[in-house]
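Workshop exercise sheet. Pairs work together: one partner reads the sequence aloud, the other fills in the structure field after running the prediction. Swap roles for the next sheet.
Pair: D.N. / O.F.
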Amino acid sequence: MKLHEHQAKEVFADAGIPVPESRLVATVEEAAEAAEAVGYPAAVKAQVRVGGRGKAGGIELVDDADEARAAAEEILGMELKGLRVDEVLVEAAVDFVDELYVGVTMDRGAGEPVAMVSTRGGVDIEAVAAEEPDAIVREGVDPVFGMQPYEARKAVYEAGVDRAVAGDVASVVRTLYGLWDDDDATEIEVNPLMVTADDEVVAADAVMNVDDDALFRQPELAESAEATDGDNLEAKADEYGFDYVRLDGDVGIVGNGAGLVMTTLDLVDYYGGAPANFLDIGGGAKAERVANALEVVFADDSVEAVVFNIFGGITRGDEVARGINEALTQFDEIPTPVVVRLAGTNAEEGMEILNTDLVTVEATLESAVQRAVDYAEGET
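Structure field:
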């Protein structure tokens, strides 16, 4: 479960992490009033549970009431990666001299939590991790003992954080670890953690994801999320009975079986693409179920191509093919190219049945994934 930025900041503020003054609003006039209250310059920020809001036009800096109205009018009602923006956070802008990154997640390879610190805040931290892994200092934490003060200081000093603020940054790191542990978080981060000219640190953004299976232990967090779920695609997928996880790429993935879908995700990454989702359609592939899966995937505006990876076991390949054909004919317009690979029982018959006016048919999983990645990149 992903918290909205304003929800995560409330959690952070309650724990003692400094955050900018802000107001959550739902109308243009409320945004103008909020901007006057927090002072200028101010930031008007879309409140949806996706990353990359700034690049998508979901964050605007404003210097007066007219600009606040214009920004709110533009952002409210817009769609970011398939999610409608119904609220904006109007927040006092931070006059900063430096931007840091701090976060806590689970290192599955090491089998322990890991705290991360970097002086490369304010940018895509995933890109930094891929291109300059040494720019992020990682400090493993023994969950039995929790994060000790010396561990937080060690990570901060090794990252090269200015000593004038190192103590405060270390305190933020320890607080984040405490929240990660106490609130059953899977990921928690501040990017950027801004440093002001007065050597103060302020959380200008906030990310907090909570383990769905632990929500029974976090009733307050669960209640706040339920009140603002809106048209969340994961909620829609759950309504249809799919196992679905939204990701940040542009290649939509549909398969029948978790292992099959995971293999497809890995191959998309291997061939240079980026998966947009994990969607396990489960057993059977009748037209209605296929159509529901496509409805979920097509609703994600970031999806540029879709790959079906279906293995026919008890459900025969020819039945799957008929289901895909019938499902696609229900759409007035197919918004993105669809690539299909069938294997297993009656796969050859199914490949022959598939309507090639509606889908691209590939004989192997590798070629299907490559074709979908090419489509997503605008190649034919």
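Discussion prompt: The radius of gyration is 23 Å. What would you look at next?
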